[in-house]
Amino acid sequence: MLFYKKIFLMILLFTNIVKLNSNILFFTNNFKINQKIYYSVLKCKNILIYDEFMPTLYTNINIKNKSKRKNVYSLEHIYPSSYIDKLAKNDMHNIVKTSKNINNARSNYKFCDIIEYKYNIKTKEWYKEHNVIDTSKWIQLENDNYVNHKKKLFIPNNNSKGIISRAILYMKFKYNYSIEKIINIDTLIKWYIDYPPSNNEIYHNNIIKELQNEDNIFIKNYNNKRQINNLIKELYKK
Q: In terms of C-beta density within 10 A (0-12 exposed, 13-18 middle, 19 or more buried), how is residue 117 classed?
């Protein structure tokens, strides 16, 4: 009974046809999920690359040819996989596709914001607050991303900041991971407030919910100010 209820919900969510007389469980907008995919973590993750409606981090590259997508895209763990256990590594609320080049450049570096630094266009020097010269080297990547390999810092473009904040908040409250080495709390909350969920991010959450039976509440309940404010207060207490 629960199976058919789930199917019915998918029809309402995505207005797709479900073939109950086959092994098809449900469709995303352009990617069918059958039983073999549903019960395979690896194949589920492929949805993030091959479904063009899934969000893309850091880059505006949009590869329409499915056979070429695997050559361009890779999967980014927003909360770095090097800091989490095996169970959390497979949590797709924390995984979004990006280009291989930027994924490699970001590594497991801490996120920060360009407003935390001041950039002098003429001298091409970065200044931290109070005008203290930061002599470490910043590299500008494609699509307004910046990386500092010496300081192990990464500044994402504006389009990526919202989804980054909500994935990190999810990992914090789901697995009780610390976030200090991932991002400064004030920056995290600013991104969360300033960059609301996009349609692609909401779509990502809806599909992952069907696969993992759990929402990212920071996406689903973004407009529930009271609930989110209470959670943020807890964040500052910890």
A: middle
Residue 210 and residue 143 share a domain: yes
pLDDT digits (tens), the chain, 238 positions: 445 444 434 433 443 323 323 343 444 544 444 444 444 566 678 889 988 899 999 999 888 777 788 889 999 999 999 999 988 999 999 999 999 999 999 999 999 998 887 777 677 777 776 666 676 788 999 999 999 999 999 999 999 999 999 999 999 999 999 999 999 999 999 999 999 999 999 999 999 998 888 999 999 999 998 888 888 888 777 6
Contact (CB, 8 A) for 53 and 31: no
* Pair (225, 179) in one structural domain: yes
Whether 175 and 90 map to the same domain: the answer is yes
Total domains in the chain come to 2
State which residues form the domain around 192: 40-237
Structure-block tokens of residue 85: 């256990």
